[in-house]
# Entry
Amino acid sequence: MTSTKTWTTAATLTATIGVAGTAWVLAVQKMSGMDMGAATELGSFGFFVSVWVLMMAAMMLPGAAPAVSRFIRANGRVLVAPLFAGSYLAVWTLVGLAVYALYEPHGTSTAGVLTIAAGVYELTPLKRECRRRCRKNVRSGFQFGFYCLGSSIGLMVILLALGVMSVTWMSIIAALVVAQKLLPPRASIDVPVALALVGLGILIALAPSSVPGLVVAM
# Structure
């Protein structure tokens, strides 16, 4: 029985990471040539939604793999995994619809301010509580998605601020998202990271051309 559960968990984790890897490849292909930094245009509605869903699968599924595994063990059925992952991604798809409705190309000063605000958000009780709940058992992928939205929204704002079609910033933000999903909160790490984000925002606002990886529109 134990070996069966172990095999099921391993297979589920492998499939989740495999889907994420495929999404990375497809997202990078679609995003090619689109990065204009803070001045990036989103393109047509259909194009943006397709790219956004791929981006969310690529960025969010690796960190969600342990939650998928816990959900399978709690329900005793491997077939619940696609439903959990799909409903989780549905939450981020709704976020994408809001982004398309509200997003406007902007300047580096705005990008800097948004990055500073995101860094400050990393230190808030709401962020800590949502991150804590991301590591607990949940009733559904929707619930997990909303907790993880609260945990990762600041980091996603940085991506939107600095270049929503930037593979470089997508990779950096994805690494932070996954690390925060898999590692327990520790002030000795989390506070310096938050302060570094605030410092990055200040640098972007004052000297954007000095920030590696940031495309500055001429």
Notes: The radius of gyration is 18 Å. Residues 2-210 form one domain. The chain has a mean pLDDT of 92. The chain has one domain: 2-210.
